[in-house]
Amino acid sequence: MSAVPHFFLYGEPRREAGPRFLHLESLAHRSRPSNWRIRPHAHTDLHHVFALSSGAGVMLAEGLRVPFAAPCLLIVPAGLVHGFTFEAEASGTVLTIAEPYARELIRREPDFAGLFTGARCLAPAEVGALEPVFAHLSRELVWQAPGHAAAVEGHLLAVLVQALRLSRHAAVGADPVAGRAAMLVAKFRETIEAKFRSGASLESYAEALAVTPAQLRRACRQIAGCPPMRLVQDRILLEAERVLLYTNMSVAEAAAYLGFEDSAYFSRFFAKRTGHSPRAVRRTRQPP
Questions:
Q1: What is the rounded end-to-end Cα distance, in angstroms, of the chain?
Q2: Could you tell me where in the chain the CATH 1.10.10.60 domains are found?
Q3: Quick one: which of 83, 117, 122, 258 is 20 to 30 A from 76 by CA?
Q4: Which CATH architecture best describes the domain 179-283?
Q5: Is the model's pLDDT at 61 over the cut of 90?
Q6: Does pLDDT of 179 surpass 60?
């Protein structure tokens, strides 16, 4: 069996990111050696912000195709299976942020809570205005001058604020995210990542989060618009689709991997939620 590739940075063996890991590199650094194609993969605890200054391409995000053209920002949250095809010699900058660092910033600025909830293309973007910010950030990341940490964070916040404002502009009319409830749902999603294959109950999740089931239900309905166990089921379905599309597991192996004791029950669950049987989805799998 071959699982969906998980990397630290693309092409690098998995390792744990430091709690304040931050990385900046040119788009060409990894894209040019791979002929401008980044195959579908995921990062467990790293978010990406791509600032494309020239060129175009297509982003693949959990089976969706998202065309884009410069100037734009591309947001890719941690854990999302994603890939890219860029035009040759496209140019831009790739910022990578450790998920724990993002959570720390969200605690201080709750408006950031919705920024890494899904892959998105934000355009038009004044990427040119961000180029000096990225240049200063790149320099500070390798310097150890007085005030180094504060300077790094200042430039990082400038990028995230720009992305946030573009995101809000793209979603005119959407309700603002409530900070406390959004933080609870964000923590719940983290807990789901650790427990979704365990068959844990709502009460178990609530206990792990030190809240009551009613509080968790209320936050999920406010922020996600659905009950908490629906988010758990959605995560199971997402993993099921990944396994069926990107690995060689059989349906029975996928069911066992996802915590189902009965593969027939898994097939009924999957078909009821998606309208397709697991075998039908497996038949659409693209060759590697």
A1: 13
A2: 179-283
A3: 258
A4: Orthogonal Bundle (1.10)
A5: no
A6: no
- Pick from 129, 91, 138, 102: nearest CA to 17: 102
Residue spans in the chain of domains classed CATH 2.60.120.280: 22-170
pLDDT in tens, 80-117: 888 999 999 999 999 999 988 998 898 889 888 888 87
Instruction: Give the distance, in angstroms, between the CA of residue 134 and the centroid of all CA atoms in the same chain.
Output: 21
What DSSP assignment string belongs to 171-201?
A: TTTPPPPPHHHHHHHHHHHHHHHHHTTTT--
Distances (CA, A) of 160 to 107, 190, 286: 14, 21, 35
Strands (E), 27-90: 37-41, 46-54, 56-61, 64-69, 72-76, 82-86
**Phi, psi at 262, each rounded to 5°:** -120, 115
Classify domain 22-170 at the CATH class level. mainly beta
Tell me what pLDDT residue 223 has.
64
Residue corresponding to tokens 């734009």? 72
Phi, psi torsion values for 43, nearest 5 degrees: -125, 125
Q: How far apart are CA 20 and CA 190, in angstroms?
A: 17
**What is the per-residue pLDDT for 169?**
64
8 in Cβ contact with 15 (< 8 Å): yes
Tokens of 173: 């009319």
